[in-house]
Structure formats: C-alpha cells, structure tokens
Structure to design on (423 residues):
C-alpha cells in the first residue's frame, strides 16, 4: 500500500483553488539492494512492511519516502508477511522459514520446527490462531501464536499459494494441483478451522496465486489471466471478465465493491505491468497506469484510496486516490442560489471533458460515472463541499468509446446526465 501526494494549484485567473490529481500511482525509489519484493503489509497511511528475496524485510514509517532494512537472520526468499497488530507479525518463505516479531519488526525469532519448503502464505485470525500454506500439500496451523505448528491433512493441492480465513472456522486456499500430468488451478475450503478441506474448484487451466475476502461471504481469487469471485463464502466461484489475459499475482479488496488486482505480462522482451481496478465488485475492471515495466507481485489497501504495490527489481508503487483516473477540480467564483449540474463540455469528448456543478450551501456531494449498463465506473467527488460552483475536468483515456452517465447526489438533490466518449 502506498502514498500519493495531492497537488494544489492557485491559478491567477477568475478561479479560486484548483485540486489536481496528477498521477494514478507514484513510483517510490526502489530499495537500494534492488531485491525482488514478494509481499507487502500496510498498517496505516505511514507504516508498511515489505518482504522479498535474500531474506529482505524492509519497513517504512513515513509513507514510503524511506525504507529501513530489518535484520531477518536468513538469506532465504521470504514470500509472505502478515501482522495482527502494529507489533505482532510473521513472515514465511523458503528454507522452511517462519519468523515472528513482537516489536514491529525490530527483531525476529525463528519458529521453524520441521522441513516444509517452500512456504508461500501466512494468515492469522488472532494473535494465537493462524495458518501457513506451501508446497507439497502443506498447511500448518497454530493455536498458540506459532510456538507450535501442526501439519494438517496432506490430501491437498500440490502448491497452496495463498490462504485466507474469515473467522476461526471458515477459510479458503488457492493454488496449483498436479492432475493427469497437468498443473491446474484449484480452490479448497474448510469450515472447521482447517482440520478438513474440500475441493470447491478444480481443473482450471489457469493457475491461482492470491485469494482475499471482504467479509465472510464475498471473496476473490486471481491467477494466470483469471479473476474469480464468490458470494457464498467460497462454496461456489464464478469467473469475472477482466478484459485481459495477463497474470495476476495479488489482489486486495477493502469492501465488497472496491478492489485492485496486480501482475503483468511478458511481451517477449520484458514484463509489462498490469494494474486493474474495480468499484463495482468486479463486474467491470479498468486498467490503470503505473509508470513502471516491472512485474508486480502483491498489493495491499487500507481503505478505498490508500494502497501499495510491490514487485520485481525492488519496485514499490503507492497511491492515495485509489489509482483513479486523472481528475482536476476548480472552484469558480460564483455564488449559486440553487443546486445545479450542467451538461459536460465538450460532448462527445476525447479524452477529457468538463463538468460544472453548484451547491447553494455546505453539503456532502457525490458524483459518480456509470456505463450504459448502469455499472459504476468511477467516483469523481465524494466529500463535504462549501457553498460554491465547481468545475471538474475528467480524463477518461483508459476507457473505451461509448455512452456514459454522470450522476450527482447532494442531500435530496439528485440529477443524471449523459455523455459520449468518442475515440
């Protein structure tokens, strides 16, 4: 999860303050060692920990402006990190690496007791109860904070790449199984804390690498050119249309509608970064730009706006606006007497258009864009606005041609207008 900066301009015209979001994702200086980063855990807008190759554990406490290396005590690859509070967390990786910290990462203590290699994912539901998944049908469970790890049944997929529990009993894991001489994607589910697992989805030609849930029912799994969604706690999974065949290594949702998936594709010469965003639960996914060509391995958001992604070559990206489309808003020196939403101009447009609206008194204003099917595309405004007239410049370069609708809601005032993007 990362930090973005909001720029303020003061034009010398008949306008007041202008808020300008000039980038979707901000590239932060790669960690000096340049090690590939595999996973990231974000605590708040300032604090995050990322892990990766060669025992790399790095931490930021200033929103990613600087990252400080922590002593892991291992040179093995670290694949996953998870914290239950600001002090207590675990990392796992190759060489049967299981490390725990109780002081926010200042020091790490090994908890490895047997040879399980490699380990891919760690998840805790409380300070005592957690699970680890890995290669060769491995799922480990602890009920005492990692002092002891118990190996659970081995009738599981060959590679369990990601594990997630919504409470102490219910959880799902995604991975890759070896069936009939082929490696195939699979999802398994437990309703008794991991004592028993049942296969929910198997035989996918697409491998699966990451799984997450927004609540006890709604979750997503991503992998090689595929995004899957469940609304019944993992009992059933359905594919969502992502509009790409790129590979996804990480997915993060902060609620049932807002999420981001990251990964990349190989163009024959190098990787091309992939970031997709949805604001309607995955019905539609929109591509976002990153300013980097590196493969992204994980993403983590603390809310709808603040997120961080990490990847190859020490890549760290951060956003504070959810990676939203470029939007500019200006305050016009007019005192309105009524609520008003004007027709966008120009219309049709490519790739930008202006939308002006007025609020006669201080009000919470929400303006959203929808496609012709009624799917939410983007939120342009969602905040308390003082009395005034405002003009938004919306840049829709990443969207396809078509008819779109923009809707304002402020108190009891609701109005919708149509606009056309023509490329």
């Amino acid at each position: 999860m990362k930090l973005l900066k909001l720029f303020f301009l003061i034009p010398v015209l008949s306008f007041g303050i202008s808020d300008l979001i000039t980038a979707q994702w901000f590239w932060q200086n790669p960690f000096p060692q340049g090690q590939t980063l595999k996973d990231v855990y974000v605590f708040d807008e300032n604090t995050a920990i990322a892990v990766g190759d060669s025992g790399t554990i790095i931490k930021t406490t200033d929103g990613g402006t600087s990252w400080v290396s922590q002593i892991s005590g291992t040179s093995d690859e670290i694949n996953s990190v998870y914290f239950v509070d600001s002090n207590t967390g675990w990392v796992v990786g190759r060489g049967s690496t299981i490390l725990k910290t109780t002081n926010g990462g200042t020091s790490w203590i090994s908890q490895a007791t047997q040879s399980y290699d490699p380990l891919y994912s760690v998840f805790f539901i409380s300070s005592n109860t957690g699970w680890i998944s890995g290669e060769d049908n491995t799922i480990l469970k602890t009920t005492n904070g990692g002092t002891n790890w118990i190996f659970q049944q081995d009738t599981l997929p060959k590679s369990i790449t990601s594990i997630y529990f919504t409470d102490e009993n219910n959880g799902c894991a995604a991975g890759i199984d070896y069936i009939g001489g082929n490696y195939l994607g699979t999802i398994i589910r437990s309703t008794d804390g991991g004592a028993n697992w049942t296969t929910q989805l198997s035989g996918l030609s697409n491998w699966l690498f990451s799984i997450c849930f927004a609540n006890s029912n709604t979750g997503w799994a991503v992998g090689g050119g595929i995004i899957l969604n469940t609304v019944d706690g993992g009992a059933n999974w359905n594919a969502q249309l992502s509009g790409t065949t790129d590979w996804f290594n990480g997915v993060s949702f902060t609620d049932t509608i807002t999420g981001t998936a990251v990964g990349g594709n190989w163009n024959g010469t190098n990787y091309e970064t992939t970031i997709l965003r949805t604001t309607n639960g995955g019905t539609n996914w929109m591509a976002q730009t990153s300013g980097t060509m590196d493969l992204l391995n994980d993403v983590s958001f603390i809310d709808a706006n603040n997120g961080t992604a990490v990847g190859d070559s020490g890549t760290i990206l951060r956003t504070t606006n959810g990676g939203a489309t470029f939007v500019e808003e200006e305050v016009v020196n007019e005192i309105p007497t009524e609520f008003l939403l004007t027709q966008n101009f120009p219309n049709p447009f490519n790739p930008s258009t202006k939308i002006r609206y007025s609020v006669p008194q201080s009000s919470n204003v929400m303006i959203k864009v929808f496609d012709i099917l009624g799917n939410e595309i983007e939120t342009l405004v969602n905040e308390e606005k003082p009395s005034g007239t405002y003009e938004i410049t919306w840049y829709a370069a990443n969207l396809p041609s078509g008819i779109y609708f923009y809707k304002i809601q402020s108190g009891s005032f609701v109005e919708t207008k149509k606009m056309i993007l023509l490329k």
Notes: The longest strand covers residues 376-385.
